């Protein structure tokens, strides 16, 4: 029964599923080939060389330049993939069947609308998450390629451009499109609304998470380097208090009059890189929670829809 429903869902949405899987497969294959060549050829040692390049680097320069451009382009496109995959897979799965009237026929033959909803949405969600997870995993390779000395498990390097957040972002956008499709019942309006609300939802989650992180920010040490997530900066007073520029001007209006400039130490505030996995997990869970809320809304609307 489950296999039959999955095959039916695939047949109805085969164009969208094939497009997403093909795009993911091509991206993974190209990125894997580029990373493999750069590592095996020895060109990886030439990427961050600031002195005079060796003879081997000069020999590999032409093909290496193209390889690094492809790797950089692939990395820049990673955050776009879950958004496009979610819209492409989530928009038509419910909205198209409601639009064409095939949902009413399925409801008249099947014992449960909820089962119908789950059977239609589950394969699309699985494809979106698995494909995006593969993209996020390869993005880790690409980031490691350009930052070979960085422990990515303890670094905010390329935050939101790699790892599990790519998969959970796809889950969120797909769920938003599914929920809106159940409400609107038309493919094109659903696509436009999902485009707006999906983007707004991801921005809102990012803003909420930013505020949570800002409330947890601590002074960062210089040893953190580029691994830490810097969120703000303050001036440190002799008594240890950290104040903003405006507060400093109230406390010491003559701070700028010194010929040596401001004499108060500047302190960066943020989240240490060692908390990366914790922060990543929290944001991923928030995205999953919002996605489940939209799926629940879609299921509720389908259950309440009039058959006619």
| Mean model confidence by pLDDT | 85
Number of distinct beta strands: 4
**Helix and strand string, N-terminal first?**
HHHHHHHHHEEEHEH
Note the main sheet: 4 strands, antiparallel
In DSSP terms (H or I, runs of 4 or more residues), the helix count works out at 11
The N- to C-terminal Cα distance equals 26 Å
The number of domains is 2
Quaternary state reads single chain
Helix content: over 70%
SS content category:
mainly alpha
Radius of gyration: 25 Å
What is the topology, as strand order, of the major beta sheet? 1-4-2-3
- Binned strand content: 5-15%
Low-pLDDT parts are none
Would you write up a description of this structure?
This protein is mainly alpha-helical and 308 residues long. The chain has two domains: 239 residues, no CATH class; 43 residues, no CATH class. It is built from eleven helices and four strands, in the order H-H-H-H-H-H-H-H-H-E-E-E-H-E-H. It has a four-stranded antiparallel β-sheet. Strand 2 and strand 3 form a beta hairpin. Helix 8 runs parallel beside helix 11. The chain is flat, with a radius of gyration of 25 Å. The relative contact order is 0.12.
Short structural description:
The protein is mostly helical. It has helices spanning 2-12, 14-41, 44-47, 55-77, 80-100, 102-109, 113-146, 164-184, 187-216, 245-251, 276-304; strands at 218-219, 229-236, 242-243, 266-271.
Please tag this protein with its features.
mainly alpha; 2 domains; 4-stranded antiparallel sheet; 11 helices; 70% helix
């Amino acid at each position: 029964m489950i296999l039959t429903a999955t095959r039916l869902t695939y047949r109805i949405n085969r164009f969208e599923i094939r497009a997403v899987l093909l795009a993911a497969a091509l991206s993974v294959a190209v990125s894997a080939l580029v990373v493999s060549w750069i590592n095996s050829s020895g060109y990886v040692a030439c990427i961050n060389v600031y002195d005079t390049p060796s003879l081997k680097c000069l020999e590999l320069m032409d093909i290496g330049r193209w390889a690094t451009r492809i790797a950089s382009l692939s990395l820049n496109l990673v955050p776009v993939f879950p958004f496009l995959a979610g819209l492409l897979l989530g928009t038509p799965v419910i909205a198209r069947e409601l639009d064409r009237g095939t949902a009413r026929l399925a409801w008249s033959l099947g014992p449960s609308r909820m089962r119908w909803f789950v059977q239609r949405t589950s394969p699309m969600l699985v494809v979106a998450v698995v494909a995006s997870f593969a993209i996020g995993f390869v993005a880790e390779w690409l980031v490691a390629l350009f930052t070979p000395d960085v422990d990515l498990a303890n670094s905010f390097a390329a935050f939101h451009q790699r790892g599990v957040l790519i998969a959970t972002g796809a889950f969120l956008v797909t769920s938003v499109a599914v929920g809106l499709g159940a409400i609107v019942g038309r493919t094109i309006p659903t696509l436009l609304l999902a485009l707006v609300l999906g983007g707004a939802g991801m921005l809102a989650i990012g803003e909420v998470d930013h505020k949570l992180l800002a409330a947890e920010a601590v002074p960062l040490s210089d040893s953190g380097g580029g691994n830490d997530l810097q969120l703000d900066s303050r001036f440190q007073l002799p008594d240890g208090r950290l104040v903003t520029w405006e507060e400093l001007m109230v406390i010491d209006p003559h701070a700028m009059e010194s010929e040596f400039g401001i004499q108060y130490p500047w302190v960066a505030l943020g989240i240490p890189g060692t908390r990366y996995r914790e922060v990543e997990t929290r944001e991923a869970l928030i995205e999953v929670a919002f996605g489940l809320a939209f799926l629940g809304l879609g299921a509720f609307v389908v259950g309440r829809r009039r058959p006619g």
